[in-house]
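Notebook entry, structure prediction.
Reason for the run: the old model in the group folder had no record of what sequence produced it. Starting over properly, with the input documented here first.
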Amino acid sequence: MASEHPRPNTQLRAVRELDLQMSRTEFARLIIATGADMGEHVGCTARLVAAWEDGDVDCPRAVYRRILSRLTGRAMSELGFRLPSLPTGRAGERSTTERTLQDRSIIQVAAWCCARAPAPRWL
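New structure, fully documented this time:
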């Protein structure tokens, strides 16, 4: 959840209203459809979009971050979200959490690409 005094997320709202020209309900439906295309089964409503835009949520869950990035082609910071900080190891060294997240992302991208690649002719 956000701090005591929520800060509205005007960047996300601008993307939705100005770039995509969608209502919150239409945007929620597009999030669900994009998630399904990515193999993610999520529930999203206009109420959740409102919570993001109104600043009630500092940063969406990871599954929504992946979907929003794919959908808009923008990083979370460009969409007005404050990402949670990751624990760090020694100076210049990636933490175990960072390595795990990066490894998981690489595996997910590889699996997504393989699932959509045509079968080799020799099969």
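Summary: The mean pLDDT is 83.
The old model has been moved to the deprecated folder.
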